[in-house]
Amino acid sequence: MYCDQKTDGGGWVLVWRFTFTDYANFHSKSNAVVPRPNWPTPEANVRVSTKVPLTSNEYEAMDFGLWKSLGKEFLVKSNINHWIVCRQGTGSLVNFEKGRISCRVVKNVPSKCHGVAPYSIDSDKKGLYLKRTGFYYDFEGTTSKYKTAFDPCGAGTATNYKKGVNNPYGSIFIR
What we know:
Blueprint: E1 3-4, E2 12-20, E3 33-34, E4 74-78, E5 83-88, E6 99-107, E7 120-124, E8 127-131, E9 135-140, E10 170-174
Antiparallel strand pairs: 1-2, 2-3, 2-10, 4-5, 4-10, 5-6, 6-7, 7-8, 8-9
């Protein structure tokens, strides 16, 4: 397993590292996160992974059923959106439960909306997402129906994420 022992006190285990199917056209229907974990998303059509990412550069996702054995707190890192640490409330990433979460920004990445964090978790047939008033992190797994949003302002727009990044990625860690 790959671990992060520096961010926010360390103790993080990497459970998912992803990239995008069409970063150049980020807010198009052809863009999705890939691979996706094996969580329940019947409309998702990108590659599913149940392989543990062994390095910080390997695009894989640990079997989702094992995430809850690692902890309840999660860290999302990305080179196009702010890094956030979240604790479960009525909602939970590791239990795939909709509801409130308590998040804070641990690293500002885009130039907009510093310190703004999501406050709820939700899911639908295409994937799981973190929200403020709109999408903040949309882990959308279909390339045919919906549009992806990574918005540091939490409004769900396609204009606030960091653009022009070589090798865009995101990662989720659990502790």
